[in-house]
Amino acid sequence: MSYSSWISKFHTCVFVVFSFVICAQSDVPRPRGVSLSKASLYPPDKDFTCFDGTITIPFSYVNDDYCDCFDGSDEPGTSACLNGVFHCANAGHRPQNIPSSRVNDGVCDCCDGTDEYTTPDACRNICEELGREARAEAQRLAELHKAGSQVRIELIEKGNRKRSDMAEQLAQLEKDKADAEKIKAEKESLKSELEAKENEALKVYREAEEEERQKKAEEERQTHMKEATEHFERFDSNNDGVLTKDEIQVVNVFDKDKDGQVDEEEFKYFLNDHESVDKETFITTTWPLLKPLMMMEQGMFKPAEDPAEDHELEHDPEEEIDDVGKEIDEELDTDDEHGDTELPSDDIEDHDEPQQAQTYDDETQKLVEEASEARRQLTDAERTVREIESNIRNIKENLEKDYGLNQEFATLDGECFEYEDKEYVYKICLFQKVTQKSKNGGSEIGLGNWGEWAGDENNKYSAMKYTNGVSCWNGPSRSTTVQIQCGLETQLLSVTEPFRCEYRMELSTPAACDDTHTHQQSSHDEL
Ligand code: MAN
């Protein structure tokens, strides 16, 4: 039924009784507050059965200002039932259903004023006016959607092209990756081959160094033994091959804390918790503890060379002993660490470049350089593979994004738009993130990263959700909902913070324009 004929029919309605309306031309008499579509549920010549089927009452009970039905269906035109529904026809504008509790409550809810029928003068019928405005707005929107849809078509074309470009790039990158992996494998085997030759050539240098190291270690061991033995014999005053408390008590150097006597604690420390030590234990256990003290007494170890500190005598002797102990430990340490400092290790993987300080014969030098070059080339090849993989990941991520049913939002990915209010500059980079920057300085605050489409069931593309922004003080992470509407240009129209740290943006874009959608809406609204 067209809009105009609907109005003319409605205008022929006459009010017959308190609660009943007969619409002559429409031939659909119905109780007050009942919509045309529900009129058949109220046949005046029969008893009325509540919509929920629970009770049947005489028809005269309908709209008698007493609530009989649990579902409120017997009182559509009075406020007797809390859950009743009053229908206003609102001829000239949109029909409306309001809770019947608002009937005759002194407030004009329906534009035709029918909800306040006991005081007919209280509410002016403004439906024609509102309808005109609504139709003008609908017309404006329809034109906007129409014009925007043209731009949208271009966006769709570009979006589809972008997607197919991405798909092509992906295919190319997969090929590049296969090639790069092949090169990497070649470089790997070249590197192994050249390193094997390098290792072979360096073997002779390593062996020489190892020999040298062992020789040095042996010399150091001998010196240590000699020194320790000499001191043991000096302290073992009765020459019985055992050093007792009596014997060390008289030797000042055992007075570790320098309190003038060698006490129980010091015996314990030097004799390793025993009453005495034999020569062997002295060499392995006592001497490493004693030697640093002796060296310090002889002025062989000094704290850090700060001239200002030369006059200060308040060194912590414990610390010095620890440091000296470390040096001694290192001196005595004969493990492998020493061996690797001058030559490339056998395990070239761990030492990317052999140390160049060492001079080799020409042949070896050439092999070292060739192996170094092979290592460099492998590193480059590995980097290339990693870069391609990262590009593949990015493209795949974008290809998986939902850019609308027709790819109309695809070209907007990464496009940024700003909005300023009194305090902040807001920025949205679509499908990426939302930020907020105070105009008084300070750093940018993340208001959310692209999450998902969040429109209602009619159109999921009518809202976007950006989540996991910077945490709100004592609260959740910041998040932003972007309401999307049709507009000839893509731009941010407003930004608000309806709840603390929950932001709401309005964005217009031609991508959201759809003329068919608008027409459907108009007809649903029964203007
Ligand atoms: C900042 C801004 C505001 C937010 C408060 C919450 O000042 O991000 O938008 O409401 O922090 O503490």
Description:
The chain is of the alpha+beta class. Among the domains are: 31-125, no CATH class; 236-302 and 317-336, no CATH class; 410-526, Cation-dependent Mannose-6-phosphate Receptor, Chain A. It contains eight helices and 17 strands. The chain has helices at residues 3-11, 127-235, 245-249, 264-270, 279-297, 317-332, 362-400, 515-524, and strands at 13-17, 20-23, 30-31, 48-49, 56-57, 85-88, 96-99, 242-244, 276-278, 416-420, 424-429, 433-438, 445-453, 463-467, 479-486, 491-499, 502-509. An eight-stranded mixed sheet has the order 10-11-12-13-14-15-17-16. Strands 1-2-3 form a three-stranded antiparallel sheet. Strands 4-5 form a two-stranded antiparallel ribbon. A hairpin with a 6-residue loop joins β2 (20-23) and β3 (30-31). α2 (127-235) packs antiparallel against α7 (362-400), α2 (127-235) packs across α8 and α5 crosses α6 (317-332). The protein starts with a helix and ends with a helix. The chain binds alpha-D-mannopyranose (MAN). Alpha-D-mannopyranose (MAN) binds at residues 436, 445, 472-473, 497, 500-501.
Key attributes of the depicted protein:
527 residues; alpha+beta; Cation-dependent Mannose-6-phosphate Receptor, Chain A; 8-stranded mixed β-sheet; 3-stranded antiparallel β-sheet; 8 helices; disordered N terminus; disordered C terminus; binds alpha-D-mannopyranose; MRH_dom; LDL_receptor-like_sf; signal; endoplasmic reticulum; calcium ion binding
